[in-house]
């Protein structure tokens, strides 16, 4: 492993690099939830059954796409490491293989969703008009799945090349186009919820084309082949398996939290929907630093510069914990004012305010976890993250069950539930990732 000397301005220089990557990444990450919000706003005016169907269908899509997030993460790590090693042609070749892998998985999932949409909706408990609306949305949006996954892979390539501005531009343009298409197809063409699904599918495909063209041009400029390489595609798939397991552990913890919230009564469940939405928004924002860490750590390890990687780790953690503390204060202090925006029920308002206070208190620790997650993903340490994810889920399980068994219903119960999730579960993640980062086993240098 190589060591580099520090200069007095090295910390500030790295800070500038972190912010140059994180700020555009933040914009692109925030643009993604806008798709769901626009769909909800447009479809919501069609009727309650349509909105309920959209809610169910969009959660299915988000789960499928979320499990494939490894397409962005593994591509970022691979491209960044090879670029850091000075192997730009190989880096772009890895990126092209990532695009082919995304296209293949997307095509299979699209066909599967078209065929399995009715059974999936039924399995989730929907029936009648709500089920019909959900199936319609899933089937019209399914062709866009390949586009969604291609966007992930192409974005990963550009992040690996330390370009987060291009994905931001494409994401913003996509959000605008999605809004226009949804309004035109839903109301102008009279397609109803089908128009919303079609509009989203078309937007995702066009975004994939835009990003794909940029990646292909870069590959051609560096002499990389555009043909799929079996070894590269299989390598990407193998690297993705541990991250899928990691993501499954996170989804399982989130699902367990919803189950317990349901058991705590309608007030707790309604409050949980608000708090979990705000928590997800903050997580998206803080993930911008994780993305910067992925790119810079991968590049530094590829270059064999361990000292620089350690500096990136420290600076990203400093920025992350600082941002988490600031956001945490806002969450804790504004709960009583934010809650009335979501519910007229005074009991739900109290539940939201109490749970937000708990989240605010624990947000700095959560930010620490988000950054360390990005650092280890950038280092290609997916296998450890997979094992750690399952271990933290095991730690969280008894805490969640204890809340279900002993916590009172309503506001107090929700506060205890969020202490279990944002406290116990996140603390377990902080210990496992922090322990790993303190050691040297993840610092594997070279291409």
Automatic annotation (TrEMBL):
Pfam families: MatE. The chain crosses the membrane at residues 18-38, 58-79, 99-120, 140-161, 168-187, 193-216, 252-272, 278-298, 319-339, 351-372, 384-407, 413-431. Keywords: Cell membrane, Membrane, Transmembrane, Transmembrane helix, Transport. InterPro entries: DinF-like, MATE_fam, MdtK-like. One of its GO terms (cellular component) is plasma membrane. PANTHER family: PROTEIN DETOXIFICATION 44, CHLOROPLASTIC, PROTEIN DETOXIFICATION 44, CHLOROPLASTIC-RELATED. Belongs to the multi antimicrobial extrusion (MATE) (TC 2.A.66.1) family. This is Efflux protein, MATE family. It comes from Promicromonospora thailandica.
């Amino acid at each position: 492993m190589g060591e580099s000397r520090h200069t007095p301005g090295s910390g500030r220089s790295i800070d500038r690099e972190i912010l140059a990557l994180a700020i555009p990444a933040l914009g692109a990450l925030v643009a993604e939830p806008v798709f769901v919000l626009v769909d909800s706003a447009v479809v919501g005016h069609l009727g309650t059954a349509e909105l309920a169907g959209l809610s169910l269908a969009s959660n299915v899509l988000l789960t499928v796409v979320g499990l494939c997030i490894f397409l962005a993460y593994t591509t970022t790590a691979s491209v960044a490491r090879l670029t850091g090693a000075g192997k730009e042609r190989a880096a772009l070749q890895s990126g092209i293989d990532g695009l082919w892998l995304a296209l293949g998985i997307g095509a299979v999932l699209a066909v599967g969703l078209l065929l399995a949409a009715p059974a999936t909706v039924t399995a989730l408990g929907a029936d009648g008009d709500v089920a019909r609306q959900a199936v319609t949305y899933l089937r019209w949006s399914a062709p866009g799945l390949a586009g969604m996954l291609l966007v992930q892979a192409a974005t990963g390539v550009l992040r690996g090349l330390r370009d987060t501005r291009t994905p931001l531009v494409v994401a913003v343009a996509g959000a605008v186009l999605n809004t226009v298409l949804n309004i035109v197809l839903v109301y102008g063409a009279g397609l109803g919820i089908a128009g919303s699904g079609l509009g989203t599918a078309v937007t995702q495909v066009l975004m994939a084309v835009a990003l794909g063209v940029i990646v292909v041009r870069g590959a051609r400029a560096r002499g990389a082949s555009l043909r799929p390489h079996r070894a590269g595609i299989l390598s990407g798939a193998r690297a993705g398996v541990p991250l899928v397991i990691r993501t499954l552990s996170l989804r399982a913890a989130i699902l367990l939290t919803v189950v317990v919230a349901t058991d705590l009564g309608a007030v707790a469940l309604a409050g949980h929907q608000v708090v979990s939405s705000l928590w997800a928004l903050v997580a998206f924002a803080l993930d911008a630093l994780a993305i910067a860490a992925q790119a810079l750590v991968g590049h530094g390890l590829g270059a064999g510069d361990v000292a620089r990687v350690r500096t990136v780790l420290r600076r990203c953690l400093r920025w992350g914990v600082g941002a988490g503390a600031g956001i945490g204060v806002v969450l804790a202090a504004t709960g009583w004012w934010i809650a009335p925006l979501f519910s007229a029920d005074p009991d739900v308002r109290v539940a939201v305010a109490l749970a937000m206070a708990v989240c605010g208190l624990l947000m700095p620790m959560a930010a620490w976890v988000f950054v360390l997650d990005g650092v280890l993903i950038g280092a290609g340490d997916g296998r450890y993250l997979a094992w750690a994810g399952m271990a933290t889920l095991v730690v969280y399980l008894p805490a969640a069950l204890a809340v279900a068994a002993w916590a009172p219903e309503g506001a107090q119960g929700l506060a205890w539930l969020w202490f279990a999730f944002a406290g116990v579960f996140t603390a377990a993640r902080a210990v496992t990732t922090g322990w790993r980062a303190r050691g040297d086993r993840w610092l594997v240098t070279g291409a």
